[in-house]
Write a structure and sequence with these properties.
globular, single chain, binds zinc ion, 5-stranded antiparallel β-sheet, 5 strands, about 210 residues, alpha+beta
Length: about 210
C-alpha cells in the first residue's frame, strides 16, 4: 500500500465514524439515535490496530518501553520490539512519537535474557527511522490523533474530544492529499485574488 492509498482508505473510514460521534441524547446523521461511547471506542480501536499494521511497511515501527519488571536489576525505560531491531531507550537514529499511553500487561522485559513474562507497566510507542524514504512524520501524527480519539471515547468522556481528534486526523490527511499542501494552495488563491479582484479564483492543478 502506498502512502496515498493509506491516506485515502483511512480518510474514508474516519469520515464514516465521525458522522456517528454525536453528543449523548441527541440524534445523529440520518435521524438515528446517538451511538454509545463503547461502540465508537471499539470501532476506533479496531481501526487503529488495522492502520498501525498497514503503516509498518511504510516505515512506522512499534516499540514497547518497559517501566518496571520483577527483576531487581531492571533497566528503567528499556525498549523492546518485535522486529529484532537493536533500538536503545534513547536512540537518535529514530524520530519518536510524542504520544505515550501507559499499559500494564504480561510480557517479557528485555532487561535480562533470563526474564520470563511478568505483569508489568509498559508504554507503547510509534517511531520511525530518520533515513526513511517515505515521510513518516504525518503518518505518525495522524495515528497519534486516532489514538487520542480512542482515549477520549471512554464512557465518562465528552464526545466532543473524540470528534476533535478525528477531525484533526482528517485535516492532516487532507493536507497530505492536497497537491503542494493546503498552505501552498491558500497562498495560490490569495495571489490570484489580489491579481484579479472581480474574478473568482480557480485552482486547476489536477486538471
Ligand atoms: Zn526489566
Amino acid at each position: 500500500m502506498s502512502p496515498i492509498e493509506f491516506y485515502l482508505n483511512l480518510r474514508e473510514e474516519l469520515l464514516l465514524i465521525v458522522t456517528d460521534v454525536v453528543n449523548s441524547g441527541s440524534w445523529g446523521t440520518y435521524y438515528k439515535p446517538s451511538i454509545s461511547n463503547s461502540i465508537n471506542k471499539n470501532r476506533l480501536e479496531r481501526l487503529l490496530i488495522k492502520y498501525k499494521d498497514l503503516a509498518e511497511p511504510l516505515g512506522i515501527i512499534k516499540v514497547t518501553r518497559h517501566i518496571s519488571c520483577s527483576n531487581d536489576n531492571h533497566v528503567e525505560y528499556i525498549v523492546s520490539n518485535e522486529y529484532g531491531l537493536d533500538i536503545e531507550s534513547v536512540d537518535n537514529r529514530f524520530e519518536w512519537g510524542f504520544f505515550q499511553e501507559m499499559n500494564k500487561r504480561m510480557c517479557k522485559c528485555p532487561c535480562s535474557d533470563k526474564n520470563i513474562s511478568t505483569h508489568h507497566e509498559v508504554l507503547d510507542e510509534l517511531i520511525y527511522h530518520k533515513d526513511q524514504n517515505i515521510p513518516c512524520g504525518p503518518i505518525l501524527s495522524i495515528l497519534e490523533d486516532v489514538e487520542r480519539a480512542v482515549l477520549n471515547s471512554k464512557n465518562n468522556k465528552a464526545r466532543s474530544g473524540v470528534r476533535e481528534h478525528i477531525l484533526m486526523a482528517l485535516i492532516n490527511i487532507n493536507n497530505q492529499l492536497m497537491p503542494g499542501g493546503m498552505e501552498a494552495y491558500v497562498k495560490h488563491l490569495k495571489t490570484i485574488s489580489q491579481n484579479s479582484a472581480s474574478t473568482p479564483p480557480v485552482f486547476t492543478a489536477w486538471n
